[in-house]
Design goal:
alpha+beta, 44% helix, elongated
């Protein structure tokens, strides 16, 4: 009986969503091919590498065709001690990652869109050196993943609005 109600509720939600003109973001024409044509230019270093890898995976960027856009990133990372033991040694850190990005036309270099994405993650720092480095690297990976997701969503929403018409694009 419970399954019957769940199936009925799902069908009702599906009908209601289709009636209001709901369109999934990535079903909008132009979003997926538009994202796939973005080449990411990241700064040197581990954070830049992680961001470029995350964004290339999210955009499904393929290097076999010339890019239509170039996404240039500027990364700023700051680490703050947040938890201090009784012997005045930090055992918890906060990593703040701020990424300023600029989307430009690949042919002309003209700026099309720009923005900023930021996040903060925390991690524990152990007494063992290897464990402390592993925790710091994990925090950096989580921060890069979150910032990349924010950039991807911003660009996907912009491309979806652009596909609907020039008046809809923010």
């Amino acid at each position: 009986m419970k399954c019957f109600f769940q199936a009925g509720a799902f069908a009702l939600v599906a009908v209601a969503a289709s009636a209001c003109g709901f369109t999934p973001l990535y079903a909008t024409p132009g979003v997926t091919p538009g994202l796939a044509s973005i080449q990411t230019i990241a700064p040197d270093g581990r954070a830049g590498f992680l961001l470029r890898e995350q964004l290339d995976d999210a955009f499904v960027y393929r290097g076999d065709a010339p890019p239509a856009y170039r996404l240039t990133l500027a990364v700023d990372e700051k680490r703050y001690a947040r938890g201090v033991r009784i012997d005045n040694i930090a055992n918890r850190y906060e990593l703040r990652m701020t990424v300023k990005w600029r989307l430009g036309d690949a042919k002309t270099g003209a700026e099309i869109r720009k923005g900023q994405a930021e996040t903060a993650v925390t991690y524990d720092s152990a007494d063992q050196p290897y464990a402390a480095i592993a925790a710091q690297n994990d925090g950096q990976e989580r921060a890069a993943t979150e910032v990349a997701r924010k950039i991807q969503l911003d660009l996907a929403a912009w491309m979806a609005a652009k596909a609907k018409g020039p008046a809809a694009a923010p």
